[in-house]
Amino acid sequence: MISSKYVAIKPGGEQLLLTIELGVPELDPKSDAGDYRCKISVSALGLEQYVYGVDAIQAYCLVLKRLKMLFEERISEGWTFYFPGYPDMEVDILSSYF
To answer: How far is CA 93 from CA 5, 35, 79, in A?
Structure first.
């Protein structure tokens, strides 16, 4: 599992420490076709799910797409993102990673 931490600030000023965790693609134990899955978790937002693909690369690419959608939604609501300890340097998370 890989992880990264950010501080998210909601439009009303509330701060959340986001720990984003992405799992390593693995064979889906429920698939008879050899499909893969990749786990994504952002506990501060109540998100914990698997994203599925026909192979390991597709599962990983789709989990990144899911993460991008998560950030796009929050940014459209007015959220801003920072690295912990750097409250004066906003992170343009979409252009940094996607």
So the answer is: 12, 30, 11
3-state secondary structure 15-38: EEEEEEEECCCEECCCCCCCCEEE
13 CB-contact burial (10 Å; exposed 0-12 / middle 13-18 / buried 19+): exposed
Q: What is the pLDDT of residues 2-48, one digit of tens each?
A: 999 999 999 999 999 999 999 999 999 999 999 999 999 999 999 99
State which amino acid sits at residue 70: L
The residue type of 80 is: T
Residue 40 near residue 66, CB atoms below 8 Å: yes
31: alpha, beta or left? (left if phi > 0; alpha if psi -120 to 50): beta
Structure tokens at 3: 């992880």
Q: pTM to 2 decimals?
A: 0.87
What is the C-alpha to C-alpha distance for residues 30 and 26, in angstroms, rounded to an integer? 11
